[in-house]
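Q: How would the structure tokens look for this protein?
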Amino acid sequence: MTTRERLLRQFLDARRAEPFRPGRNDCALFAADWIAALTGTDPAAPWRGWYETLDEGRALLVEDGFASPAEVLAPILLRDAGWMQAQAGDIAVLIEAGEEAMGLVGGGHIHVLRPLRGLGAVPLDRAIRIYRP
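A: Here is the predicted structure in token form.
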């Protein structure tokens, strides 16, 4: 197991019991927290705690010129070729309920944070984009 895989496992274990809460613990902040754990920089700092619904969060991003939470990642992370090149700990962008969502690659699946169900997993081939922190 690589250091990155070990860090990912520790990160997921620490987050397992945290419920989904927009503005506090949602899919965008889940990915941002992972990036911050790896890099020391929080890409969600300007929006963290400033919204209580996903719609409010999306509206804040639009006000700042971003079409989606994943668009915030484009200038700060390396975009990979696709899900077939994904490595553990990469950020995966996928579509959930008609909206872009983010999760963390863990082998052949994506760790996702879902309303009502908390931490779960979906197949890696659901990714539409992959970013490498």
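The CA atoms of residues 84 and 125 lie 8 Å apart.

The first helix runs from residue 3 to 15.

Upvote if useful.
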